[in-house]
Structures are given as structure tokens and as C-alpha cells.
């Protein structure tokens, strides 16, 4: 076998890649990217890996969430702040209910590329390349916008760097301080049916914190900041390759675009380019697991992506749909057990429950999302396995994209604030409801 290197994936079939009109222009852009500073560090990556190892043992819990696809315009202070607020508030509920550390990972600062079911799309008799995310082309249905442009890779890097810089500044300056949970309220929290329950939890935690510090006679400064990690689907392999590097005093290569890259279900074939690329990086790696995946397939993924059997290295993020999970997940759990491999299991109850309304809106029903989540918890318990985390598509904004929830959003209500360009997301209130559901189902 040829030794692995960041470009070895180019010798394999590569799905969901952009078709650039000029290879020379692409190469020139990749050369520029390869000289730019990394977006994350190997120390952060190794810290996340050790925490994910704890999650796989049931000693911590992963909360991974964010937009289906980021737009370059999302590099905006208010949008980034709202995303952090909802993840921090959800983690607060989880810490209180599960009594264990919560690992916060955002689908942010790099989720600029999306897989598509077809390379081309037709509107009113006009056929153009599909929109594959701001990292590749534009959403406008014009010939000029839909041509893949490698300069967008540099723009994506810049937006990711600015977003990460702002996240780190907020995390370090006290934005996440448990001493001041009032800073976390969004404008519309007072209208939520869960507002009172949320504030009771916050007050409970604040009082406990004051009691602990009274006993210790000092303020715990560690509670004024939090660790916040980033993730995105490592779809665009040229982009991932350009920031994959060796670092001093560590062996192997690190993908320094993000802490936790993952592989989508459509690109998880063990003989293809994405598995080849991901098999050689030191980052923790996620893989979306879905309907039709065989036991042999998932066992091969364990062998290819975690040959040294490191704890915290490999995550299987399962997304079957509420009507299929009971039939398909147990066999895969047992198949992985037979390999003896270390795996952190994560539930993604969103992607398998997508549907379209009679009026053409792409949506998801809250009850179906909740059903798959609760079934996931029950199945892992019955199979003697551990559910180490959850993976949601959500936003901190007041959108109307998923049907149901405490306010009873119906099909007619979707049109009020339907903003997503790709997949529907849980809004702020629905996301808090999901966090509460997890604590009620898994809490001691």
C-alpha cells in the first residue's frame, strides 16, 4: 500500500466535488491557502479528543449543533452571538439534568459546503450547476453565480478565521460566565412557554455556585470561560487538504481547518476519497450512519478510521428517521461491539425526518425528531451501549422551519420566518425543549 499523505485521496473516486473550469486557478488558490496560518491548533484538537473519550465512556456528553449550511453573510456579530447563546443555554440545562460535563461543539466557522443529490438543477427550462454552498458557488440562479470559483475558498477561510476570533474573544471575556446568566437571554425568551423552567434551572445553578464559592472563600475563575470547539462536514477535499499539516513535537498530520470534521453518509464508501483522506488525520472524526448501511460496512469504517483503536477518535453519528431506527440501529451497535473498537455514538435525530408540506416547504416535525431521540436513548440502553451525545441542526434565531414544539407551530406558521436555504432547523425554543427532553430521559 502507498503511504498516506494529504493528497493521496486524489487517487480515489471523489464524490460531491466541485467542477472548476480552471485547474491552474484552483492550484494557485490552494497554494495560497497552504501558506496561511492554521485556524485551530493541535492542542485544542487533542483536548477535544480526550473529552470525547470521556463521552464514549458515559463520563461526559457531547452537544453538537448549528446551521445546516453557513453563508458568508453569517459572519455577523449578532448571528454568531445568538448561535453561542443557544448552545450555552442548552449545555446549561444538560449539565444540570445529567450531572456531567458537556462538550460544546458548533457547526460553525467552516460549514460552507453542502452535498447535493444532483450536479445540475433545472428551473423554468434553464439548467445550471447546483448550488453547493458559499465555499463553491453562489445561490443566485444565474450562470455566472453557479460557476465554481476557487477564490471562494479564500473567502471561506477568511470568514472562518473572523468567526473563530470572535468566538474565542467571547469565550474568554466572560460572555459565558455562570455568575452572570442574564447575559445569555435572547430577546424572545420571555415569550417561551419554557422560560420559567429555564430560569428556575439557572437560579438553581447560580445558588449552587455561590454556595460552593462561599465554602471555598474565593471565586472560581474557571467558570467565567468555557471551551468551545468547531466542526464542519469535510466535504471539499481540496480545501481540507490545503490546511492539513504536520506540527512540531507531534506525529502525523492534523486537519487545522476545524477541531472535529465529519464525513457525510453520501461520501462514506470505504473505497472512496473521503475515507482515504480522513483515515490519515489525527483529528477526531465523525461519520454519518444511516439507512442501508451494512454491518460489514460499519466494521470496515472502524478498521479504516481508527486502526490504533484510540478512545475519542471515531464518532458514529446515526440518523435513520423515527420509523426506521428501531429496526436498523441495534444490529450496527452489535457489529461495532464485535470489532472491539472504541466508538462514541451520537444521535442526529434531524436528517432522517425531513419531509415536504403540501405548500412546498421542506420541514421536520418536532414530534418525529423527539421520537427518534428518545428511541436512540432506549436502544443504546437495551444494547448495553452508551449514547455519548447529540447532533442538531439549530439556530439561535426566531425562525419557523420545523413543525410543532411547545408553541404548536403548524404548516401555515412556517411562512412567518422560514429562512433556511437548505435544511430546516430547530429554533431557539425548540432547541431548549430538546435539551430538556434529553435530561428527562437520561437524567438520574
Q: Any key phrases for this structure?
A:
single chain; 444 residues; alpha/beta; TIM Barrel; eight-stranded parallel beta barrel; 12 helices; globular; cobalt; manganese; DAHP_synth_2; Phospho-2-dehydro-3-deoxyheptonate aldolase
Q: How is this structure best described in words?
A:
The protein is an alpha/beta fold and 444 residues long. It has one domain (8-442): Alpha-Beta Barrel (TIM Barrel). It has twelve helices and 15 strands. The chain has helices at residues 23-35, 42-56, 77-98, 143-146, 151-172, 195-216, 237-242, 273-278, 295-305, 325-339, 366-382, 428-442, and strands at 61-66, 102-107, 120-123, 126-129, 229-233, 244-246, 253-255, 260-263, 285-289, 314-318, 344-347, 354-356, 362-365, 387-393, 402-403. The strands form four sheets. An eight-stranded parallel beta barrel has the order 1-2-5-8-9-10-11-14, surrounded by four helices. Strand 6 and strand 7 form a beta hairpin. Helix 3 packs across helix 5 (151-172), helix 9 crosses helix 10 and helix 10 packs parallel to helix 11. The protein is globular and about 60 Å long.
